[in-house]
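Progress note, sequence design subtask.
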């Protein structure tokens, strides 16, 4: 049974003395068994001894330094020389593994590189090196992960120079599956073909983006493509606000009115606000009609059905709405009608599925945190490793 000394936290050490306040210097002996790393023999002879200085994890708020007397040995069995190995310390390192973990976790937890370096008395480059080591051990666990059952695909801006990236999220586990640079069909196709077990994927949720759909149709043959509720609502609102601006560009700039027009009719609203809306529509009946149409459409888009039978009347209504949009005399509404028409199957499927890309949006916020913490990143691969460790 190895002896665990509670202050050092590594097996087979014995504290001889401890001094200092800001920097606690712990003098310790290794009392474990020594054997040759080449042939595992214990038939050894001490040739030399020296003190090894190792940075160790903090005790309270004080940093600590471990001073361990170690030896150079001669192995009588294989006639080789070696330096004594210590548990929790890699050869040639001047810090213990617990210290490296402490540094990495401090940075991982949200402290910037420079602040972590300052707090723990190391250089910023050292923090980065330890953190990379930490991420590599964590990321290796993800390598063999097969394709998630419910996949969310969404795009996000990375940097000015490298442009956009695409996020693949596991919507069931609320985690990032992977991120890849680019959002064009070509770059996505190249990435997607490398995903293992694509047949595993049953549902792909995406915003109404043609390249995403083409890639999904081709490379996820067994998956149903579902439009993302979040983006559909956003799109409808966008085109209606544009149409409103066409009809009354002064009213469109009125902020209170804008907020009211954006809201769903069934969401809670003050009676005075409702009255304001009514008065505005009385003056502008055309806008009122469009508003009512939008509310009906929204309600339809956001409906939930539990069987194919329930969906039938809704589908009929939806097709009527699309026709009405396409036959209207406003450019923006015609565009909206055309888009909805092109995506009608994916939108109808949305009524059966509860998962949306709002999960992906949440993950994007966490990615922004990673970028902010590093004060921006230029290397996409470094970013990807961090995303997988932090959101994966
Ligand atoms: Zn040996």
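Output:
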């Amino acid at each position: 049974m190895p002896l665990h000394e509670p202050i050092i936290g590594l097996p087979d050490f014995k504290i001889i003395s401890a001094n200092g306040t800001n920097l606690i210097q712990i003098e310790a002996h290794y009392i474990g068994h020594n054997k040759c790393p080449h042939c595992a023999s214990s038939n050894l002879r001490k040739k030399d001894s020296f003190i090894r200085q190792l940075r160790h994890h903090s005790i309270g708020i004080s940093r600590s330094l471990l001073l361990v007397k170690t030896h150079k040995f001669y192995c009588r069995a294989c006639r080789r020389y070696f330096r004594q190995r210590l548990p929790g310390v890699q050869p040639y390192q001047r810090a213990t593994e617990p210290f490296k973990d402490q540094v990495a976790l401090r940075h991982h937890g949200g402290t910037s590189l420079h602040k972590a370096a300052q707090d723990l008395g190391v250089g910023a480059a050292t923090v980065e090196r330890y953190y990379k080591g930490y991420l590599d051990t964590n990321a290796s666990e993800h390598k063999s992960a097969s394709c998630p059952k419910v996949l969310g695909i969404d795009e996000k801006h990375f940097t000015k120079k490298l442009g956009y990236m695409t996020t693949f999220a596991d919507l069931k586990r609320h985690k990032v599956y992977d991120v890849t640079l680019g959002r064009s069909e070509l770059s996505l196709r190249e990435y997607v073909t490398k995903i293992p077990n694509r047949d595993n994927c049953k549902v792909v949720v995406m915003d109404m983006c043609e390249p995403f759909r083409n890639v999904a149709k081709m490379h996820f043959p067994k998956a149903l493509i579902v439009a993302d509720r979040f983006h559909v609502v956003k799109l409808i609102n966008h085109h209606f606000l544009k149409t409103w601006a066409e009809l009354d560009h002064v009213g469109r700039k009125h902020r209170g009115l804008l907020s009211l027009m954006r809201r769903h009719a069934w969401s809670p609203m003050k009676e005075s606000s409702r009255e304001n809306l009514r008065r505005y529509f009385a003056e502008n009946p055309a806008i009122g009609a469009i508003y009512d149409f939008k509310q009906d459409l929204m309600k339809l888009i956001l409906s939930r059905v539990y069987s194919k039978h329930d969906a039938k009347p809704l589908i009929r209504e939806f097709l009527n709405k699309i026709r009405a949009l396409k036959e209207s005399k406003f450019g923006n509404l015609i565009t909206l009608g055309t888009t909805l028409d092109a995506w009608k199957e994916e939108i109808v499927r949305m009524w059966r599925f509860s998962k949306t890309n709002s999960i992906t949006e949440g993950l994007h916020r966490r990615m922004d945190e990673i970028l902010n913490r590093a004060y921006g990143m230029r290397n996409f691969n470094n970013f990807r490793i961090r995303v997988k460790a932090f959101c994966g």
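Residues 36, 38-39, 41, 75, 77-78, 80 surround zinc ion (CB under 6 Å). Work on this subtask will continue into the next period as scheduled.
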